Amino acid sequence: MATEHTEIERKFDVDEAFVLPDLSAVPGVASAGEAVVHDLQATYYDTADLRLARAKITLRRRTGGPDDGWHLKLPAAAGARRELQSPLGRAVKAPPRAVLLPVLGVVRRAPAGQVATLQTRRTVTTLLAEDGRVLAEVADDQVTGTALPAAAGEAAVVSTWREVEVELVDGDEELLSAVGAELEVSGARPSASAAKLTRVLAERLAGPPPAAVQDEDDDEDDVDDDGATPVVAEPLPEGKKARAKEVARRAQAAKAAEKAAKKAAKKAEKAAAEQARAAAVPMAGEVVVAALAEQLTALQRADLMVRTDVPDGVHQVRVAARRLRSILAAYRPVLDRTGTDAVRDELQWLGQELSGTRDAEVSVEHLRELVAAQPAEYVLGPVASRLQQAELQGQTQGTGQAVATLSTPRYLTLLDTLHALVAQPPLTDLATEPAEEVVAGVLRHTVKRLQKLVDAAEDAEFAEDGPGEHGAGEHGAAESPYELALHEVRKAGKRVRYTAEVAAPVLDGRGKKKNGAVMGVVDAMKQLQDVLGDRQDTVVTRELCRTVGQAAFDAGENAWTYGRLHALEEARAMQAERDFWALWPTLAPVLNGVTRKR
């Protein structure tokens, strides 16, 4: 079973002549321990296309030190890296499945094999507090790194260097900064590589090698140093007059050639400027594909959160999936829908599979807070404890269900499809047009769609006369046509927001205007989502009140409080609806500002 360690460290490059200074004089350090030497051997594993390294994740099998085993280092957050450690076991050629499981969403179904080895002679010095606590460890590393051949017939690449690492144990950031400053005074330089593996695989991570260039010695007899074919001047004619005439002709020709060269240079300069201006204008396809790539990265990051039990991971997966769906739906003029509609369906499936986990978690938490705020005489029976049990049970089942969903072949296929979509997007002819007009047109369309849905919701509100017809909502609770219409408005508002976020860098001066018209739409849609999101939350909480109340009643408990909670949530829903209709007129000017053609 893996154990978790949080790594907070700083790395420094040093020369061979570097001498580690006496760090016992650093403020907060009482003394330095005796130096201990370890000979470490580590083998690093990754896919052939280095998916882990590109995601800033390292996976190694290390022996020779006090922490022998498999080490999975996850991306840094707030200056710290999470490290999952597992026992060595007997696997050597490939990592055990249990070790790979946390990063399954990154490697997907590609095999992970050996990509590099490191041999490190590490000299560790501990920095101690007055009471003997270890504040930090300073590791002076002599490293030999070997990048293993990427393909048959290639040679391994060996590199050597020296670096110093300072890792906090029981110290704080202030101590880390002080030790780092002392090392820099002594000649150390902050390392440009976040990890040793990054340095070893730098050439492969940089991408394909540049195209071959012609050798400098090729055709050296036929070409001048500046690359031009030499011109051999003809001898001047005999005779004084003929010679003078030829000299004048040549001078005139040289003057004309110089004038022509200046004209050509000016023309070339103008063409280059036009080309540079054209290159500075983003194409619609570039903007949309970049947005997809950004959300795919967010999905991968959220996937890792779920698999390593980081709070809010399921919610972040759903948000990334929803944003991807919205981009694919809204920007269909840029992306051929025959290549994206199936992907949208799969993203919808993913969101639905995870919806119960997230919604139940939020709903139970809200109801527990609501119960705590009630007068004691209104809480009849073990309501709080029953909700707490529901919360704990939901968390356990929810995390397991989420990880199971993210480990299915269907989900892994979706990830492969998304990566392929970003690498080779099915672009339409409109994708090669300048982005400004294209994204403006898409944004206008999504805003007008929202406005029509609001009109439909208003019609449904006035059409309701009594109970009316009810349909099943996404959580199984019965909802009226009016409630369903408001739900569609909420979803349309999200699409407007995500569409505007893609368009804002282009339409609001490519990020120069922080509060431009399009970002105003984003802010407006956040307000809309807050209000209608509250109303939608009550759909889940009311159903939860019913089911938990029924269970309490079946167990012989007094279920009156659950009815009260249900009524309070109904009142919250009605208030949210009133808040929405009060808010909507204030959003109209913001939305109208982007519906007019530019």
Automatic annotation (TrEMBL):
Biased composition range(s): Basic and acidic residues: 467-477
Q: Where is the signal peptide?
A: none
Acidic residues bias locations: 214-227
User: Which PROSITE patterns is this protein grouped with?
Assistant: CHAD, CYTH
Residue ranges for the region (Disordered) are 206-243, 460-479
**Pfam families noted in UniProt:** CHAD (PF05235), CYTH (PF01928)
- Superkingdom is Bacteria
- Where the record annotates domain CHAD, the positions are 281-589
Q: Gene3D superfamilies, per this entry? A: CHAD domain, Hypothetical Protein Pfu-838710-001
- Where is the CYTH domain positioned along the sequence? 5-207
* InterPro entries in the cross-refs: CHAD_dom, CHAD_dom_sf, CYTH-like_dom_sf, CYTH_domain
PANTHER family associated with the record: CHAD DOMAIN-CONTAINING PROTEIN, SLR1444 PROTEIN
Q: What is this protein called?
A: CYTH and CHAD domain-containing protein
